[in-house]
Amino acid sequence: MPEHRELRLSDDVRLHVTVSGPVDAEVTVVLLHGWTLDGRSWHHQVAELRERFADRVRLVTYDARGHGRSSCLALRDATLAQLGDDLAAVIDEIVPSGPVVLVGHSMGGMTVMEYAHRHPDRFAARTAGLVFVSTTAEGHTHTVYGLSPRIARLIRLAETTGAGVLARCGGWRPPHALLRALRPSIRWMLFGDRCDPADIRLVTSAVAHATLRSIGGFRASIGAQHRLETLTALGGLPAAALVGDRDRLTPPPCAESIAAALPTAELTVCPGAGHMLMMERPDAVNAAVAGVLDRVLAAPGGGGGDPAAVATVTP
């Protein structure tokens, strides 16, 4: 059974952490969710990895500050830099020893990059593998929402203005009635050709648990981050990058630039899929994480191999 823990950070923010698997497992996988979501978004991956690897792998998910069951945050801390520091604290406290594979979706992937940028020695000492799911190292450079550049600029202006308003709303959470009305918009923005109604309900529930300060406050930092140079310096870690070709938030050029910066990364493009790959294409995400884990577990001392980047297309 998974263990639920509360990690109190140095600024008194409390993170809700879920752990499954033995503390002496050969490798620990830390899965980081996206903006406005929570740790539940990885339920397909947790179930599959637990069945496939049993006690060889320990699994950790947690709700980022201001999200899910974690506590609210000060507006000044709604930054990717702070999330990178939070990840360092989670690893130090929850995974004090052994190799770690980091799996990040959207904002979670950007958090991994920030951790590598701000804590390079700790990252190098502990990280054995990486999986980037529907994320970017270039802020909003490639985000055009699947629309013309001119319309995309107008939407981004409206989104940025709205985010600034929401960021000042404090610890309030979105009304459920409003979110139900916005489900068609959420479905269009986040999903591709196929969408399970249960996934929409889960995403809507997650957004309902994110504070308005978090929903609005993180937007500026997400749009401004550029970490390709950080990725280029990471060396030969086993890695994977996945993207849906219908992703309106982090389209294929985002994953392509990550794979180009990480020569060991295997790039997977999922036709017809949107931004929520771990729900839309769980088999592809599970296979990518398992592939990285297989390479980590097979290497002496939990190290990784050094294959060239390979582009694949997953149906």
Automatic annotation (TrEMBL):
Question: GO cellular component terms?
Answer: membrane
> What GO MF annotations does this protein's record show?
catalytic activity
Give every AB hydrolase-1 domain span: 29-288
Spell out the PANTHER family in the cross-references. HYDROLASE, PUTATIVE (AFU_ORTHOLOGUE AFUA_2G14860)-RELATED, MONOACYLGLYCEROL LIPASE
Q: What is this protein called?
A: Pimeloyl-ACP methyl ester carboxylesterase
User: Lineage of this protein's species?
Assistant: Bacteria, Bacillati, Actinomycetota, Actinomycetes, Micromonosporales
